[in-house]
Amino acid sequence: MSVIAPKFRLSYFIKSILDNAFWAITLLTLIGLPFVQVILFYLELPVIGGRLLDPYLALTILADPSRQIPLLQSFIQTDFFKIAVFPGFGFAALLAAGTIFVERKMLAKLQLRVGPFYCGKIEGILQLMSDGIKLLTKEIIIPAKADKPIFWAAPVLFVATAAAFVSLIPAAGGGWVVADVEVGLIAVFAIIGFFPVITVLSSWSANSKFPFIGGIRALHQMVSFEIPLILSVLGVVILTGTLNLTEIAESQDPFWWIIFLPIGAIVFFIAMLAELERIPFDLPEAESEIVAGWLTEFSGMMYGLVQLGSYLKLYAFAGLFVVLFLGGWSGPNIWPPFPEEIIEKGIELGPVTAHFPGLPLLDQQMLNDVLWYVIKVVGVIFFILLPRGVFPRVRIDLLLHIGWYKLIGLAFVNIFIALGLLYAGVLGPEGIL
Amino acid sequence: MTAQLPPGLHMEKVDERIMTLNVGPQHPGSGHMRLIVKIDGDFIVSCDPDPGYVHRGEEKMAEYRNYITNIPHLERPVIHDSCNVLYPYCLGVEELLGVEVPERAKYLRVIASELNRCVYTQYWLAIYGIFLGHSTMFMWPAGDRELFIDMLEKMTGARVTHAYFVPGGIRNDVPANFEDMLLRRVDYFEKRIKEYAAIFYDNPILISRTTDAGVLSREDAIRLGTTGSTLRASGVDFDLRKKEKYDAYGELDVHSNVLKAGDSYARSKIPWLDMLESCNIIREAVRKMPKSGSVRVKLKPNPKGGDDEVYKRVESGRGSLGCYIVSRSKPEPYRVKMSVGSFRNLICLPYLLKGEKLGNMPAVYWSLNYWPVEADR
Amino acid sequence: MGTATGIIKALNSGIKHLAVKRFTLRYPEQKLKFVGDGYQFDPATGVGIAGYKGRHMLFHDHCTGCQLCSIACEGVAEAIAMVKVQEDWKQNKKAIMPQIDYGKCVFCGLCVDACPFYALYMTNDYELSSYSKEALIYTPAQLQVKPDVQQDAELVFDDPRGATHG
């Protein structure tokens, strides 16, 4: 692109500025204004202090910070906040990114080496960001004979399904879940049942031998471990009497279910490792035998999307384990309460006292719930990451043996224990505990 | 197609169920070799190994260089086990030229050979771990072999491809307080490799994966001519260090490890046990080594052997490594033939993999203690 | 039950190793220390002196231009060629000295073994990368310079939590 620059003339310069201005104004009025009108027509604007939010009020709020609090509070109650920030995509993506980094560092420490080190001043913290940027800038290569529509759609479907899974997990008491479904648990299993389909679609559309083998193995693995997954949870459902995930979490008030149903927890954990394709069950991605399994032909951001979906799934499964067996968000109240004086008297900044009506934004109970939830999820994720450094890969026939014989047997034992506890009157709706 | 085929060509019908998989040189699970694997579902119908991707003509190049200049290129088939690759060559040339190696050189050669054996076995074990999906088993051996590579670098001046053995002895004596450093590292190394038991050799997943995978019976092992750890894992007690007693091995107490199972698990365990044995050999050699003395015999410039031929063999990390040298009264040898353990063990591979599951292929293939570069020379 | 104990022992070993110190040598901030000054050869005894086989060092006041190093390298890598130098030495009437092409040299040290005049040694310098192949050919004047190396990291065994490079 080496063009000899034309000579500078003031008239040309002014002409170019006017041209840009003309086009900017035209596009703004012809496309931008109708767009904004349509959005404002459909968007539900909050009511603040008895007035509907309009641009004048919004601009006044910018000038007077004390009036921002009601705006923020109403924003937090909207659906958009729940989907995008907490407990939906933003929170899950943050935890997923943290998981990837911690996994690399923890595995490195276990293997007596340093993990990411140079990116970011402190022990390579910005490594993930640089990996993301690298994946964004890489060329996406589609094999010539691949089935193009399905090949393009597969990673997007994968992330979408993982996000749907994340949306069902409650993160704090009082309805902090993106989709509050009465039969939340069955919805979770319906979504999990969709993953093998996506895997097979992506491996079949790549039209190559190694993804083909990987896809078939993934199908075998995921399908055979779904049954123990569901059966192991039946014990909890029998004792709780409800399928709503929030209620299951709240029903574990004095005792966590893992104390009474440890076998179920272990079966769920092993089946979870298999569904997530983590070592020791990472046959579909077995590097030394079939290059990268069903992920072989993905490159660039498609690979990035698949990894993102994978780790969102990991967070969601860990969250599900916490909700079902570890008591959700219950824990002693250690979050400090919001200081009373700021609510009543405001903050003194020199001669001015700033009042913030509407504080606190989030109440103490909810923050405490979130803290305990995050601590438990981090603990479960640690135990999911640990086998990666310790175990080799299982072979496909041993895997199917475990999934169809041993785990289903153990799950049934677990159900019998649950039924025994229920009919002995120890637990359950009429129990003594 | 009923037309007559030209002589020498034959047509075979391809079964529709069979898929040909090219586990080729560009594959994370194959090393520098190609395996043409025909599979029927999950079972291997036939496996055709295709070595030759790293052939560099070592034996032909040896005919154009004299006995001393042959050293740097002849050690390259296995770069980190280079002392063991040069060992039979040096022993053979010494017999051709009629020189006697000094005592201290013999012990130092033994120490270098054992260090190289440990270094090679750690690398092999690292790749075995990664073939099975165990990334920790890749990092730990690769890190622990640093201890001995550091030692070899102090001894010989280079981390790999040491060019340390020459006909007549070794090229340089060891630095001061060498024994002290060596013994400290040997102690720490032994402590580290004992940790592998908990995480690898007693790991139930590994045991379930490699037991009864590629079983080589005792008769078959002898009939197919296998050597090294593959042979000892099938119940045959054959170790050249005990049988031929070359150099200082006659004065050392070598105990060879034998397991009877003959499956991949036994084949993967024997080199680890051999490493523990090497630590003992090194300690004993350091104790018995003469504290001073010359380490090299000065040869005439441009040494010539008579009209003679000699065959010497040595127990390297992979098995018996033999060198057959023919000389015709010239400074260059007339013919150097290297007979390597990897190539001899390769003959077992199609035999063992027939009817085996595809998941067992990396476990069986690499457990034969196979080094592709050496097989190609 | 053997399976369960095996799994728990493996996990236990994994968790124990989280407390062991990292073994990595942080190159290039840390560089390994070598014994001595580099590989040398004593023609009087016919035995070498242990040292690292790095870049060569040529002593101009000993080199006689006998070409034995070049002849020794002919069978190995053909990396040494004799070039005319503009220096005036009493022992070097032909005024030729070796130039070494590090694009071809395999660092075997047979040239050091071949020199009978204590003129060619090897040093501890191994960082020889350059941006062009021509820059890898070191002239006799470049080979005269003693390399300035900062190597001081060693293996440390005293820590009970594992060995480190420090």
Concise structural overview:
The complex is a heterotrimer of chains A (433), B (377) and C (166). Chain A is mainly alpha-helical. Helix content of chain A is 62%, strand content 2%.
Task: Please name the defining characteristics of this protein.
heterotrimer; A: mainly alpha; B: Cytochrome-c3 Hydrogenase, chain B; 3-stranded antiparallel sheet; 16 helices; 8 strands; globular
Explain what the structure shows.
With 433 residues, chain A is an all-alpha fold. Helices cover 62% and strands 2% of the residues of chain A. Chain A has helices at 10-42, 55-63, 68-77, 79-84, 89-110, 127-137, 148-166, 184-192, 195-205, 209-240, 245-250, 257-260, 262-275, 287-290, 301-325, 340-344, 364-385, 396-423, and strands at residues 47-48, 51-52, 347-349, 352-354. In chain A, a hairpin with a 2-residue loop joins strand 3 and strand 4. Chain A is globular, with a radius of gyration of 27 Å. Chain A starts with 9 loop residues before the first helix and ends in a 10-residue tail after the last helix. The model of chain A has no long low-confidence stretch (mean pLDDT 82). Chain B is of the alpha+beta class. Chain B has one domain (19-376): Cytochrome-c3 Hydrogenase, chain B (Orthogonal Bundle). Chain B has 16 helices and eight strands. In chain B, strands 1-2-3 form a three-stranded antiparallel sheet. Chain C has 166 residues and is an alpha+beta fold. Chain C has one domain (28-165): 2-Layer Sandwich (Alpha-Beta Plaits), CATH 3.30.70. Chain C contains four helices and nine strands, in the order H-E-E-E-H-E-E-H-E-E-H-E-E. In chain C, the strands form four sheets. Chain C has a three-stranded antiparallel sheet. A two-stranded antiparallel sheet of chain C has the order 1-2. Chain C has a two-stranded antiparallel ribbon with strand order 3-6. In chain C, a hairpin with a 4-residue loop joins strand 1 and strand 2. In chain C, 35% of the residues are buried. The model of chain C has no long low-confidence stretch (mean pLDDT 85). Chains in contact: A-B, A-C, B-C. The B-C interface holds B 64-66, 68-73, 136, 143, 146-147, 150, 153-158, 161, 163, 171-175, 184-185, 188, 195, 198-199, 202-205, 207, 294-296, 298 and C 2-3, 6-7, 9-10, 12-14, 17, 23-24, 32, 34-36, 39, 41, 45-53, 72, 74-77, 106-110, 113, 122, 155, 157, 163.
